[in-house]
Amino acid sequence: MDPDFLNAFTQPSTLDRFLTEDVITKGEKRKLIKPTSSNKLKLEELKLFLTEWINRTLKEEHIVVKSLEEDLYDGLVLHHLLENLGSLKLDVEKIALTEKKQRKKLSVILEVVAKCLQLEESQLKWSVESILAKDLLSTLHLLVAIAKHFEPTLALPPNIQVETITIETTSSGLKTSNAVEYITENK
Questions:
Q1: Which CATH architecture describes the domain 40-157?
Q2: The model scores a pTM over 0.70
Q3: pLDDT band at 184, cuts 50/70/90?
Q4: Residue span of the signal peptide, if any (predicted)?
């Protein structure tokens, strides 16, 4: 077995998150940021930058984001952000309390984002499921894409990359692969 696979779970938060989720179904893939990613400081810088950007953008609406994963998964902040940045009126409820309504709301929001960015489904680095699952990597890709589209002059921290591990179940067991993924471009 890949030693990096085991190392990915030496951090309690990653292990707890993986164990509390449903068992990965056959053929499913999950991509995680390695806890040992060498670019952790730059990643934290990007998270802080995006959090402050959202808070500045939504200040008049009295919306305060403290955690990208925890505060964006249900679609409420994304809804307000898109309406504010793009002057878009989204045909969804402002507040979605049930998971079914959150899933529907996110689906509409992410469809609008894909249309605005003129991206095909195969080009998307996020999904309704990954955002609902509070996946940091997907959330960062989504926010960076929104920021670059609606505020192209925004000075995003450059050259943010993370080491990832992809876990996939196959008929012979778990298969893992490592990669480096770029979240922001080198300026």
A1: Orthogonal Bundle (1.10)
A2: yes
A3: very high
A4: none
